[in-house]
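job 3f2a | input accepted
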Amino acid sequence: MKLTKKLIAFAMAAFMVLALVPAFAAGGNARPLTESERAAKLEKLMVFSGKTTDIINAYDGTIASRGENDEFALARIIVKYKGELTDENAVAHAEGYNDWHVFQYASPAEAEAACEAFKKMKGVQWAEPDEIMTVCATPGSSSFNSWGYGPTHVNAYEYNQWLYAQYGNSVAAMPTIIVAVVDTGADQDHPYLVDRLIPGYNFINNTNNPEDGHSHGTHVSGTVVDGTFANVKIMPVKVLSDAGSGTTLQVCNGMEFGYLNGADVENLSLGGGCDHAEGHFMMAEVIDEAYDNGCTVCVAAGNENDNAENHCPANVRRACTVASIGTSHSRSYFSNYGECVDIAAPGENIYSSIPGGSYGYKDGTSMATRTSPPSRRRSRPPIPI
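job 3f2a | predicted structure (385 res):
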């Protein structure tokens, strides 16, 4: 992938002015929610999250022990249907938000059969498996600021001087930009983050404490903070466990929480496979809702050295999909690629915060995604649902 220095500069710099440009809603015609509608929806989300967390905790066990390449490994499906819906073969069922119905089965085979049956049912908009999602980082092998800054890459110092002047040399005059880092949480006491964090949520344990016991979310949060002014705030939304994995359902609940609580940007440095050809309808629906309510969603392309079309949410049409480059400005050996990639940013040997008040290096499209802006190339239509 060949990128000019201007494009790389745009990737690094535009993030800091997200509040100055509208979110790009390609073809979206839904009106934004009113404050009362937003509050009512958030209340329903939290009740729904409690129900689904109970199901996940009761039936998933150790996700890592399940075949991550099997889309029905969790033996759970999500169905979009307006009205009551039941299945006597399911061992658990939750509903009450966005017309989503969650059915848990005793085996992957039963879940797959039920999914196919629901797809044929009149009135069902879509049915798909709840799949395993994991972090998009590789172990790292140069101080703040990371190597992406500097005259040969992006001269962030000069850019920040210009931005500072636009607001009368006052950070207090700048609009607050809230970035929901939908990930493994964040180290709440890290000295590099503590003044930037605002309240978030833990969708793994269904609590108000999104503490990071993994390190990925803390590292991503630090790279968002690096090179930005104090008006950029981090909302840590924990949707991946301390082992670095979660489910489509948990991720989507977390994304809903982010935009309903006023996030201007959502960072999803995570992903999973895409075994069903129809696409990931739930992810597409939530990203559509976020964009329609003024929130830009940036997602990692993935680290499989594969076409990003084979991975979700990288292949969701209204997501801003970010690949990784190294110091030579060429694609990282691990980075996914393809037509659904919108932009690339530095993702190798990125130095940032890790839990315990420490700092370290990581590689991955996760590290690239934290610098990504809303792409102006929004000509692709949303997945129809």
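job 3f2a | The chain has two domains: 5-28+135-369, 75-129.
job 3f2a | closed
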